[in-house]
Structures are given as structure tokens and as C-alpha cells.
Design brief:
The chain is an alpha/beta fold and about 220 residues long. It has a single domain, classed as Aminopeptidase (3-Layer(aba) Sandwich). About 40% of the residues lie in helices and about 20% in strands. The strands form 2 sheets. A 6-stranded mixed beta sheet has the order 2-1-3-8-4-7, sandwiched between helices. The protein has a two-stranded antiparallel sheet with strand order 5-6. Helix 1 crosses helix 5 and helix 3 packs across helix 5. The protein is globular, with a radius of gyration of 19 Å. The N and C termini lie far apart (about 45 Å).
Length: about 220
């Protein structure tokens, strides 16, 4: 199908107390489920390393040119599947898996302090929570100032905000890998619907502006 939407979904490798990273397990479950025939799904595992993220994300966006990138990470304190609305540029003091952190403690030297996704996470959250998914969703504006936040901000910057970040709880607290995979599928399909709707509204708005401009020109003639 020529008009397939290309979506990239990433999870993280193990780190710290997370000998098994629920995010990558959930992404692999999503890959098994798929996103339907209309979506070309690509998945990859991201190292918990600042420099690896810096090197990996630009090529991901440039080579694949996806309509949407969704990064998934694990949060030890989360009890819901959490949709992150924004990424932050500064405050990165924690060492990564290579015992490194940026000297500047920021993602982009001249970047804005915060970048919001083009997706309204409250809308996505409400629609999915209103379904019979059986997995609770919530929205957050603080992705934690570690590799999750760092990856999200960098991807929002590179992808002109066509990006999302989802935090999942550790496996079994309370959801299984199958639950998390189903949740990711429902959320990402909803995100694609919202993006399509946003695109349609933008086109209609531009068309209205053009029509108004032509009408003004006719009035001047």
C-alpha cells in the first residue's frame, strides 16, 4: 500500500534496577500485535546513553522520515501508562550506563527550555480511557530529566514536535507485557487519528485563508 503511514516506536535497554526494561518488552509486544495494514511500523531499542541518543535520533528521523515517532520508557514510580506532554532541555545530572552525563547538562545549547508535542495528550488520554481497554492512562508534564526526557526533547526538536513519549510501569505493577502492548497500540492509533484530524483542520484553515484573500482581491478590483 503506497500511502502507508510510517511510525517508529522505540524502547530502552536495561539500566539501574531495571534488569528487564518494561518499555522494550512492551514495544516488542506491540510489534507482534502490529498497527494494522495502513501503518508501516519500525521498532528499535535505544541505549541508555546520552551520546548514543545524540547519534541515533538524527539518522532515525532523516533516513526513515516517519509521520510519527513514539518513544517508550519505564518509570519505577508509575502505576498507569503515562503520556508525556513535553520534553525539557536542561537539568541532566544523572550518569548514564556509561557513567557519563553532558557537561552542559542540557540537550541543545541554544534550544528552548521546553518543547511540547503537537499532540494534545489530554485528548488522546481521554479517548483511550473512555474505551474498554482495561489499562489506565494519565498525562504528565515532567518526563524525569534522565534519558527518557533527554530522548524526548531531542526527538521533539529534530522532528518538529511530531513525537510522543509514553512511560510504562514495571512489568506486573500492575500490568503484564500483553496489557502494555495493547495499551501502546490503542494509544498510537489514537495519536495517528489526532494527527490526521490536525492535518485536515490545517488544510481547511489554509483554504479558508486563501479564499478570504481572493475575496479581498476581488473587492479591490
Amino acid at each position: 500500500m503506497a500511502n502507508k503511514k510510517k511510525v517508529v516506536v522505540t524502547g530502552f535497554e536495561p539500566f539501574g534496577d531495571h534488569a528487564v526494561n518494561a518499555s522494550w518488552v512492551a514495544v516488542q509486544e506491540l510489534q507482534r500485535l502490529g498497527l494494522g495494514e495502513d501503518v508501516d511500523l519500525h521498532v528499535c531499542e535505544v541505549p541508555v546513553e546520552y551520546k548514543a541518543v545524540e547519534n541515533m535520533l538524527p539518522s532515525l528521523w532523516k533516513e526513515l522520515q516517519p509521520q510519527l515517532v513514539v518513544h517508550v520508557g519505564v518509570s519505577g514510580i508509575a502505576t498507569t501508562v503515562t503520556l508525556e506532554q513535553c520534553g525539557h532541555n536542561r537539568g541532566y545530572k544523572r550518569l548514564d550506563n556509561c557513567s557519563f552525563c553532558p557537561t552542559s547538562q542540557c540537550c541543545m545549547e541554544n534550544g528552548p527550555d521546553c518543547i511540547k508535542s503537537v499532540l494534545d495528550m489530554d485528548v488522546v488520554c481521554k479517548h483511550v480511557n473512555d474505551s474498554d481497554l482495561g489499562v489506565a492512562l494519565s498525562v504528565s508534564e515532567d518526563a524525569g530529566r534522565y534519558l527518557c526526557d533527554y530522548t524526548y526533547y531531542t526527538s521533539l526538536y529534530l522532528g518538529h514536535r511530531r513525537c510522543a513519549f509514553i512511560h510504562v510501569p514495571p512489568l506486573g505493577k500492575p500490568y503484564s507485557s500483553q496489557d502494555l502492548g495493547r495499551a501502546l497500540k490503542a494509544v498510537i492509533l489514537e495519536m495517528l487519528d489526532v494527527l490526521t484530524q490536525n492535518c485536515t483542520e490545517e488544510k481547511e484553515h489554509k483554504h479558508e485563508e486563501q479564499c478570504h484573500h481572493k475575496h479581498q482581491q476581488q473587492q479591490r478590483c
